[in-house]
Here is the input.
Amino acid sequence: MMKLSRRGLLKLGALGAAHGFIPPLPALPFVDGKEAPVIARRPVISFARAISWGIRVYAEPNFSAKVVDSMVADETRPVYAELVTDSGSSYNKRWFEVEGGFVYSSLIHIVPWEFNPAVTDAGENGFWGEVTVPYVDSRVAPSLAASRTKYRYYGGTTYKVIKVVRGKGAADVGAPADPAAAFDYDWWYQVEDESFPGLYFVPAKLLRQVPQSDFMTLSPDVDPRDKRIEIRLSDKRVIAYEKGKEVFMARCASGARFSADKDFRTPPGQYRIFRKTVSQHMYGGAFGDSDYFDLPGIPWVSYFTGSGIAFHGAYWHNDYGSERSHGCINLLDKDARWIYRWTTPRSEIYDRYTMTSTFTEGTAVTVTGFNA
Here is the structure.
């Protein structure tokens, strides 16, 4: 076994505190009602979803180690530990010990795996829901027998629930009789897609209602004028200050240059947060191009430029410290939520969008340093 660096083995402190409610590995009715096997036999601190195909699983947390397995896209395994070793990129040497070996972190999405009681009435204003399983496919009707839409919703992504409905049987959606499809969910949520309106249904059990506490302002007693954020492009850090004192720091991924004529590097300058939303479906580029993207449910979005650059969570990579976005500042979901709650304009739980009346009112954002 390789010798770890002095930083050694890192238990996920925040997740470690959650051991009491993260199940050992529950039987999860996945896309078609098939239950995932219970394979974990050790304490689980989180779950690892493979973001792309062919994620290598190594015998040790080192790129020089033997490859013992691989993960296909969206395959999910329990995580037993997080490690920092001497192997990896200059800015990311983080690995996860999963069932069967070790995986490098950059293309691993850490996801929840929890069930939730169904909210049986969306009310007049609807409510925000957050996916609490590795992924769920949206359907055109409230039944596992209904056709899938093109969108798969991933753990941690957020959506506006606009209606709660009872589940339908296969016969109700015109599907052929299938004994394997006997399982279905009692309650389903219809969710909004603000970019591509249509019918999108997901099982209620797989989304949690985002609580009021997630909208409570952080440091409410601090004058908003005494809060500011610095984005340091040189080392990909987001730092928040109160009265000049650092109170928060997170690694980020910033804008990238995809080609000579597709330069989306985050521009240095002085900005202010002026618009927020809990969820945004972002899309752009031409299908098949290197800069194409179509991403529903991006969580905790705080815009600070008129061209659409924002702080937000990211579920399509785990490579913080790099340049890989279309200008936005990608953060872990928990960090994007922190920025959302700490900054102005302040958001209310039922707001679809929260905006300032002018560009000079929101929290100041300074982008400094240089791009690669």
